[in-house]
């Protein structure tokens, strides 16, 4: 099929029709696409505009807290709360900006050969610092199994999965990260012994702002956008997110990469690292 009008987007669907025949149905989705574009631009612009004033407010609050005698003891608690809330707003704005950038499909970082071992070590350190010794965290990785992709994006996706495991696992719980082959694919999995998720929520977790327990997410510094961001990053890498969980019995979140994304170092090279 050739199409010459760039202002019209058609969605085509081939459906069975009669005996051994197929019907091609075209739906004009130009208007929908335009609205979607406007929504994305609006969110990106609002987030961008909010960033500067918020940075100024946060900066002055910090200065006041650090300035001797500027904040009387009786009101220090209120100032602390204001700092906490500006921090939350800042995280939210950063996540909204990241999401609209990912959704726009622009500025796609180039694929490179990723040093998976150092990436996993960084993620491990971040998890330990977030957990602050309150969980037992372990890592098991196939050192010869490499990956191609955008290093910063994958760091953010893996880091987010692990930070969720820490945030939704009570003190004393276990978090186990694994990077290894799974059939012809490879998976980075994060198992936790945390609170778990009821089955009915699982399919909706990657929707923007979908949270099983709003107050718990807020308490632990969540924005409700983490899994949407992860899903976009993985889709860009032709990878998928798999979630297995049972309420009260922990969860496993896996980022599964296809063969086309994998590289295999010779054992000799892997051992030298
Ligand atoms: P949030 O910032 O709220 O954590 P996410 O998009 O990262 O947002 O996750 C969406 C929701 O999925 C969370 O609010 C939480 O209810 C649930 N969730 C994510 N990871 C886990 C986990 N490891 N264990 C239990 N629940 C989780």
From TrEMBL:
Its main location: membrane. It catalyses: ATP + protein L-histidine = ADP + protein N-phospho-L-histidine. It is found in: Cell membrane. GO terms for cellular component: plasma membrane. Keywords: ATP-binding, Cell membrane, Kinase, Membrane, Nucleotide-binding, Phosphate transport, Phosphoprotein, Transferase, Transmembrane, Transmembrane helix, Transport, Two-component regulatory system. Its EC number is 2.7.13.3. It is an enzyme of class 2 (transferase). One of its GO terms (molecular function) is phosphoprotein phosphatase activity. Residues 45-261 form the Histidine kinase domain. GO terms for biological process: cellular response to phosphate starvation; phosphate ion transport. Member of the two-component regulatory system PhoR/PhoB involved in the phosphate regulon genes expression. PhoR may function as a membrane-associated protein kinase that phosphorylates PhoB in response to environmental signals. This is Phosphate regulon sensor protein PhoR. The lineage of its organism: Bacteria, Pseudomonadati, Pseudomonadota, Betaproteobacteria, Nitrosomonadales. The chain holds residues 168 to 440 of 440 of the full protein.
């Amino acid at each position: 099929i050739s199409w010459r009008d760039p202002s019209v987007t058609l969605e085509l669907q081939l459906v069975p029709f009669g005996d051994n025949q197929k019907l091609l149905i075209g739906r004009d989705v130009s208007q929908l696409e335009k609205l979607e574009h406007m929504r994305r631009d609006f969110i990106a612009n609002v987030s961008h505009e909010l960033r500067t004033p918020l940075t100024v407010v946060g900066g002055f609050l910090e200065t006041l807290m650090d300035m001797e005698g500027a904040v009387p003891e009786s009101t220090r608690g209120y100032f602390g709360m204001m700092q906490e809330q500006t921090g939350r707003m800042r995280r939210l704005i950063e996540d909204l900006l990241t999401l609209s950038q990912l959704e726009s499909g622009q500025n796609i970082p180039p694929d490179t050969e990723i040093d998976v071992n150092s990436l996993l070590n960084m993620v491990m350190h971040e998890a330990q610092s977030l957990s602050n010794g309150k969980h037992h965290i372990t890592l098991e990785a196939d050192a010869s199994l490499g990956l191609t992709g955008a290093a910063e994006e994958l760091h953010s996706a893996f880091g987010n999965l692990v930070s969720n495991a820490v945030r939704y696992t009570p003190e004393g719980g276990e978090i186990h990260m694994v990077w290894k082959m799974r059939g012809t694919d490879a998976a980075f999995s994060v198992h936790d012994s945390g609170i778990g998720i009821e089955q009915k929520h699982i399919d909706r977790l990657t929707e923007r702002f979908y949270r099983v327990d709003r107050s718990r997410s807020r308490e632990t510094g969540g924005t409700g956008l983490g899994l949407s961001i992860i899903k976009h990053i993985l889709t860009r890498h032709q990878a998928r997110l798999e979630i297995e969980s049972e309420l009260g019995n922990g969860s496993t979140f896996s980022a599964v990469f296809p063969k086309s994304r994998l590289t295999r170092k010779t054992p000799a090279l892997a051992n030298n690292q």
